[in-house]
Design a protein that fits this description.
Layout lengths: L2 H16 L31 H8 L7 H18 L3 H4 L2 H16 L3 H8 L3 H4 L2 H16 L4 H4 L1 H14 L10 H17 L3 H5 L2 H6 L8 E5 L9 H5 L20 H5 L5 E5 L1
Antiparallel strand pairs: 1-2
Helix pairs in contact: 2-3, 10-11
The protein binds iron/sulfur cluster (3 copies).
C-alpha cells in the first residue's frame, strides 16, 4: 500500500478514536490529554486538550504542578520518540488541513497567495506560535484572565458549533464570543489560503512539539552529497520547508512526502 495512503488511514482511525465520546458511555470520555490539538468541549471528544490543562495550571494566579506537568510529559515523551510526527499522523486538525491544503496549493498559483507564502518575513512569522504559547497560555491568564480556549478556532469548530446545532438552548456565549467568531473565520480563510497555515504560524501544540525534532529518535535525514537540486522535495512539502537544507527543522511534521518525492532516494526516515 502506498505510504501516503497508509498515513491517511492512520489519520482517519485517529480521528474516529478522538471522537468516540459521542454516545457518552462510561469510559469513552477518558479525560486523559491528547498529544495533539483537539477540544474537550466537543460533544464527541474522547480526551482533553493539553492547552486547557496548561491554562488551568496557571489560571488567575494559582499554580498546579500536576496540571502543568501532565501535558508536558505526554508531549515530551512522544516528541522525544517521534518529533513532530503527531502533527501529520494523528492530529485531526492536521487531517482537516490535509484536505484544505489541496485547495491552498491551487490558490498558491495566484500571484497574491504565492507572494504571501514567499515573503521574506514569512519565516519570522512562524515564531508567532511560540509567542502565542507563552503569552496566551501563561501570561494573559495571569494578567487579564483571557484564556486561549475562549477564542480557540478548534474549540469553536468542534465544541461551539455542534453544541449550537444539537442543543441550541444550552449554549451561553461568554464575553469573548464575538472575538471567537472572527478568529474562527480567519482560521478558515488561512487554511484555504496557505497550506497548513494554522500549523505553520499559530498552533501552540506545534510550538511545543517542534523543538523535539532536534533530538528525536525518529527524524528525517537528507543526504545532500549527490543532490541534483531538482527541488522536488521542497515542492511537495506541506510545511514549505527548504528540504535539502533543513537540518532537523522544527517545522518538519515527518509526513514523508519528501521521502517519496526524491528521485535519488536521498531522503529517509532515520532512527538513531
Ligand atoms: S501543529 Fe497542526 S497538526 Fe500539529 S497539533 Fe497543531 S494543529 Fe495539529
Ligand atoms: S520536510 Fe519532508 S517530512 Fe518534513 S514536513 Fe516537509 S515533506 Fe514532510
Ligand atoms: S528531491 Fe532529492 S535530489 Fe531533488 S532536491 Fe530534494 S534531496 Fe535533492
Amino acid at each position: 500500500m502506498k505510504f501516503q495512503l497508509k498515513r491517511l488511514y492512520f489519520q482517519i482511525i485517529l480521528f474516529f478514536t478522538a471522537n468516540l465520546g459521542y454516545p457518552g458511555l462510561p469510559g469513552l470520555k477518558t479525560g486523559f490529554c491528547y498529544p495533539f490539538f483537539y477540544c474537550q468541549a466537543c460533544p464527541a471528544a474522547t480526551s482533553a486538550c493539553p492547552l486547557r490543562s496548561l491554562e488551568q495550571s496557571v489560571d488567575r494566579g494559582s499554580f498546579s504542578w500536576r496540571l502543568f506537568l501532565y501535558p508536558l510529559l505526554i508531549i515530551g515523551f512522544l516528541g522525544t520518540l517521534t518529533g513532530r510526527a503527531v502533527c501529520s499522523w494523528a492530529c485531526p486538525i492536521g487531517l482537516l488541513q490535509r484536505g484544505t491544503g489541496r485547495v491552498a496549493r491551487k490558490v498558491k498559483k495566484f500571484p497574491f497567495a504565492n507572494k504571501l507564502g514567499q515573503h521574506r518575513i514569512e519565516k519570522y512569522f512562524r515564531y508567532t506560535k511560540y509567542i502565542l504559547l507563552i503569552s496566551l497560555v501563561f501570561v494573559t491568564s495571569y494578567l487579564i484572565g483571557f484564556i486561549f480556549t475562549d477564542i480557540c478556532p478548534v474549540g469553536f469548530l468542534t465544541g461551539t458549533i455542534p453544541t449550537l446545532l444539537l442543543n441550541p438552548g444550552k449554549f451561553l456565549p461568554n464575553y469573548f464570543f464575538p472575538v471567537a467568531v472572527v478568529i474562527f473565520i480567519l482560521f478558515f480563510v488561512l487554511i484555504f489560503l496557505i497550506e497548513r497555515g494554522w500549523c505553520r504560524y499559530f498552533c501552540p501544540i506545534g510550538a511545543l512539539l517542534g523543538p523535539f525534532n532536534k533530538i528525536s529518535f525518529l527524524h528525517i535525514s537528507v543526504d545532500i552529497k549527490d543532490c541534483t537540486h531538482c527541488n522536488g522535495c521542497s515542492y511537495v512539502c506541506p510545511m514549505g520547508i527548504d528540504v535539502p537544507n533543513m537540518h532537523r527543522d522544527p517545522e518538519c511534521i515527518l509526513c514523508g512526502k519528501c521521502v517519496t518525492a526524491c528521485p535519488m532516494q536521498h531522503i529517509t526516515y532515520e532512527r538513531r
